[in-house]
Input
Amino acid sequence: MTSLPKYWLTAAIIIHLLAAWFSVGHYHDDEYAQILNFATSKIGMDMQSELMWEFKAGVRSGFQPFIAFVLSKATSYAGIDSHFVLAFIYRLISAAISLIATVVFIQSIANDINSKKAFKWTAFFLLFSWILIFTNVRFSSEGWACSFFLLALGLYRYPSPASIQRFLLVGFFFGLAFLARYQVGFMLLGFGLWMLFINKQKPLNIFFILFAGCFALLLGAGFDSWLYGEQTVSSLNYFKFHLSGLSGGGISAALPEPWWFYIYYSAVQLIPPLTLLLPIAIAAFWLFFPRHPVTWLTVPFVLFHSYFGHKEMRYLFPLLPFAPVMFAMAALKADEKFKLLKRNFFKYLWPVVFWISFGVNVLLVILTLSLPASKEVALWQNCLTPLSIENESVLMVLDQDGSYSDPAELNMDFYNTNNLQIISVRDENQINEMLKQYPDKQMLYASRKRNRSQELEDTGLSHELICQALPDWILKININNWTSRTSMWRIWSINN
Output
């Protein structure tokens, strides 16, 4: 068994701790709206926002909302009242599960990569890639599905004697991965077919896996009944809902993206310039290793998501840990077949591409540890919560087109523990009306549009800038006064 350097594990733990602390908030609104907001509705807090249509349709799993609810009660019992500390605990648990899964997975793929140097760099990027650090600390359905699936797969292929307990754990973690994100079912389908036709696993061992998986699904049904207040199975509701074509906000309702969307974005949004080769490496891996389990589990998952018009990179986040493995194995096989590194062009180009990508990754890791994942949550943590504790306040949010999209992004009941009132205003002129309506309250004004301070001055409103979304150290690097022209959340105190 190949062991990792101890200082790598120590460094990975420290970096993930820092990311869990500093990378506040969520990557996508669904992480908040379909997990934390659902949990908030069960905690018993006053809610100003409506739950998303998925709650009424009963199509989202109660698994993570239940975890969030239980942890909320536990921390409250322990005397921890801050929901920002609670959110940090969510991220910390996510990071712990991810790191354990990653270490187990690394050990399971040691025999697949027939080069110690390539294995070392594969393990390095699995532990220290900026995108994996970022996703590992997210309390999201994609992140948890990825971690539990990776843990199950790593245990299944772990280089040690098999046992009943191990197969039961594999099935249970596969079940939890499915509960976290139902689309993982396509990965499970592919892996199950691989077990049957390629791996030819013993029927009794498959029974143990299925038994534990079904137990996890029974737990999921219990979580769903708790969340929705009635006996229901959200996974069945989900597939019925989307297959019926009646979705008003699901996959079919979004603007369609072209079939090559994932090819383009996976190449340019991860660690360029190295990942410019990633789509080619993945296709090569599928061709070179048609019998490998990673091929069987990734192909149906990619085809499923490529088929539907609504595409987002986060949908493929569960596949991220497989990318370094596929890249390394495909590159080694290509070099073996075509002797690429003996050709001067590749021999001299490859180190340049690799080390530039390494530097880009280091920079992106630093930014990941420095910037909030959600500027809206950062505003609540650094500005709105302290202010609303000191005074009864009203937060006015600019809503020029009447869509309520901007106010909705700041209307976060989970963090609004002091029930700060949030209202929308169409422009700065309407603020005068609000001042008359709320004469005895502290009035705050938030907008992420440019030049709003000038608009406040033109309207004759006495105001003071009290908070901006970006960290102070970035704002101090105000080259050519870029901060005055950029769009970002700002909050002003409006004086009566």
